[in-house]
């Protein structure tokens, strides 16, 4: 698991304040762990976006609780975690496997196209990839919304609470 290194890199790229880096890494690690284990649990279910929903809910709860307790910005604390959840969510839902299948069917060892491949096969791969990305976006959005609604049930004054 190389995830803490990725979150450190994202903190450096985003020019995070050093006081907040440990919180960002903790939230990103917990979000990745929830996504990983929920993805394994719900891998064969009819609703694979549950893993991204649970991970986004965990990230949103931790970020909003951090914001509420320490009066800091929840967005900056959650940003590396969200960036890590997006590619891992696509991979856990199998969309990368579809892309690899398409690449293997296009190229056959020596760079020529396979005889049995058709545009219908590729359109199906692209459609399933698009559908997987939409399910991931839906899970992340719903998870972050539920977390904000749980931590701030009456809303938050003078803030764009649901802007993420």
Give a short summary of the structure.
With 164 residues, the chain is mostly helical.
What oligomeric state is this?
A: single chain
Spans where pLDDT lies below 50 across 5 or more residues: none
Morphology call? globular
Q: How many DSSP E strands?
A: 0
Distance between the termini: 27 Å
The Cα radius of gyration reads: 19 Å
Q: Largest beta sheet, briefly?
A: none
Strand content: under 5%
The helix fraction, in percent, is: over 70%
The structural class is mainly alpha
Task: Provide a count of the helices.
Answer: 6
Average pLDDT for all residues: 76
Topology pattern, helix = H, strand = E: HHHHHH
Walk me through the structure.
The mean pLDDT is 76. The chain has a domain at 3-93 and 137-155. It is built from 6 helices and no strands. The chain is mainly alpha-helical and 164 residues long.
Describe how the helices and strands are arranged.
Blueprint: H1 3-13, H2 18-41, H3 49-70, H4 74-92, H5 95-106, H6 119-151
Helix pairs in contact: 1-2, 1-4, 2-3, 2-4, 3-4, 3-6, 4-6, 5-6
Keywords:
164 residues, mainly alpha, 6 helices, 74% helix, globular
